[in-house]
Design brief:
Largest sheet: 6 strands, mixed
Shape: flat
Distance between the termini: 57 Å
Oligomer: single chain
Strand order of the largest sheet: 2-5-4-3-6-7
Strand content: 5-15%
Helix content: 40-55%
Number of strands: 8
Number of helices: 18
Length: 393
C-alpha cells in the first residue's frame, strides 16, 4: 500500500483568464480521458457553486482553477469538447460545473460504475485503495472551500483526487468488461450526463425539515415568514441558511407562536448563531405571520403522486402484496447479478409500476411501462421478463 504522502503531484493553481487559456491549450494537446472534479462550500455558503475546479489529463495537469478569479471558462470548455470526462459521483458536480459553462459530451462515472460492479465500498478513497493500492487522505472533503487563500494542504488533496481518476477509470473499465456490464454502465453514464435539473419549487419553504408537524394555516404562515426572512439574510451574507438558524428552530417558533419577542428569545429550541443577534428580524417575521390574511393552504397535491408505500398494507393490501412479491423477485435478481437493488431498478419505478399496472401484463407491456417511467433499456431487459409472471391474474 502506498500512502498519499509518499507521492507528489505537480499541480498548478490557475487564478485568472490568461492562466486558464494556457492551461486549456495544454489540456487540448494532451491525450486520453480527462479527470474532472469540483469542490463546493456546501453547508457554509448560500449557494452550491464550485469554488475550485480540478482537471487532469495524462501529459497535462493537474490544474486547479479558482472560479473566484476567472470570468470566462469558455477556453476550457472548448479544449475538453468531445472528450470523455471521468468524475466520481458525477451527479454531485455536474450542476456546479454547468454553472461555469462546463458540461461533458461523454461521461465515465467511477462511483456509479463501482455500484454496478457490486463493490462493497464505493467511495473514492475505498476504490482507489482497492484497485490502485494508494491510500488517500480525506481530511478536507468537508472543508469550507470558499476560504481564501486556500491552504496548500487542501490544494494537495484536491490535486490527488483528480490526478488518479484516469488510472482509476481504466481499472474500473476492466472490471466492467470482465463482468459483462460495460453496456449497463454506458447507459447509466449517459442518463447521469443528460439528467435534467429539478425545477425550482414554487414554495421552497415547504421543504423545511420537520415541517410536517405544522398542522394549522397560521403555523404554516409563521414558518413561511421565518423561512423567507432567513433566506433573505442568508443570501445577503452568502451563508448557508441553516448556519443562521436551523430548520428545527423555524419549526419550533412556528409551533410555539410566541406572544412577544421575549417569549421568542426564551424558547429553548430556538437556537443558532443568529437566533439572538437577529431577534428583531425574526420577531418581525413572526408578526407578519400572525397578522397576514395570506394563509397557506394544504400542500398542493402532485397529480402524478402515489400513496406512500408504507401505508399500503393497511389501506391498499392488494397493492402491498403485489409490491412485496415484485420486490422479492427483483431482490433475488439483484443478488444474482451482484448489483444493488436500487441500481437494478429504481425503487420508485417499481412502486409506480405496481400501483398502476398496465393493462398488458406481458413482458412487452411491463417493458413499455418501465420505459415510460424512465428505466434504462438494460434494466428493462433484465426485470420485465421476471416481473411479468408476478402480475398474472
Amino acid at each position: 500500500m502506498v500512502e498519499q504522502s509518499e507521492l507528489e503531484t505537480n499541480w498548478s493553481l490557475i487564478t485568472d483568464n490568461d492562466g486558464l487559456a494556457s492551461a486549456a491549450a495544454a489540456l487540448a494537446a494532451a491525450s486520453g480521458p480527462v479527470g474532472v472534479d469540483a469542490e463546493r462550500a456546501s453547508g457554509f455558503t448560500y449557494g452550491s457553486e464550485a469554488y475550485l475546479v480540478q482537471v487532469f489529463r495524462r501529459g497535462a495537469g493537474p490544474y486547479l482553477f479558482d472560479p473566484t478569479g476567472i470570468t470566462d471558462f469558455t477556453p476550457l470548455a472548448d479544449a475538453l469538447r468531445g472528450e470523455e470526462w471521468v468524475l466520481h459521483a458525477a451527479s454531485q458536480d455536474i450542476p456546479c460545473l454547468a454553472e461555469l459553462g462546463l458540461h461533458p459530451d461523454h461521461l465515465f462515472d467511477t462511483e456509479l460504475a463501482a455500484r454496478l460492479l457490486g463493490y462493497e465500498r464505493v467511495g473514492l478513497g475505498a476504490i482507489v485503495e482497492s484497485l490502485l493500492g494508494i491510500h488517500l487522505e480525506k481530511a478536507h472533503s468537508a472543508a469550507d472551500w470558499s476560504k481564501r487563500p486556500l491552504p496548500e494542504s487542501w490544494l494537495d488533496y484536491a490535486a490527488f483526487d483528480v490526478a488518479l481518476l484516469p488510472d482509476l477509470r481504466d481499472a474500473v473499465a476492466r472490471d466492467l468488461d470482465a463482468q459483462g456490464k460495460a453496456e449497463y454502465a454506458a447507459q447509466e453514464f449517459e442518463a447521469a450526463r443528460t439528467k435534467e435539473p429539478k425545477p425550482k419549487a414554487a414554495e421552497p419553504w415547504r421543504k423545511l425539515s420537520g415541517g410536517h408537524a405544522l398542522r394549522t394555516p397560521r403555523s404554516l404562515a409563521l414558518a413561511r415568514e421565518l423561512w423567507e426572512a432567513r433566506d433573505a439574510l442568508a443570501r445577503e451574507r452568502d451563508v448557508a441558511p441553516g448556519r443562521l438558524i436551523p430548520d428545527s428552530s423555524v419549526v419550533a417558533a412556528a409551533t410555539a407562536n410566541p406572544r412577544s419577542k421575549g417569549d421568542l428569545a426564551r424558547l429553548p429550541n430556538f437556537k443558532g448563531r443568529a437566533s439572538r443577534t437577529e431577534i428583531d428580524r425574526w420577531w418581525q417575521a413572526i408578526l407578519v405571520g400572525k397578522t397576514t390574511e395570506n394563509l397557506p393552504g394544504a400542500k398542493p397535491r402532485d397529480p402524478d403522486a402515489i400513496p406512500h408505500h408504507r401505508g399500503w398494507a393497511q389501506r391498499h393490501p392488494e397493492a402491498a402484496e403485489r409490491l412485496a412479491e415484485a420486490r422479492a423477485v427483483v431482490e433475488a435478481e439483484a443478488e444474482r447479478q451482484a448489483i444493488p437493488l436500487e441500481n437494478l431498478l429504481t425503487p420508485d419505478h417499481l412502486r409506480r409500476l405496481v400501483w398502476r399496472l398496465p393493462a398488458d401484463h406481458s413482458p412487452e407491456g411491463i417493458a413499455l411501462r418501465l420505459t415510460e417511467l424512465g428505466a434504462r433499456p438494460w434494466q428493462v431487459g433484465i426485470v420485465a421478463p421476471i416481473l411479468a409472471p408476478v402480475f398474472v391474474d
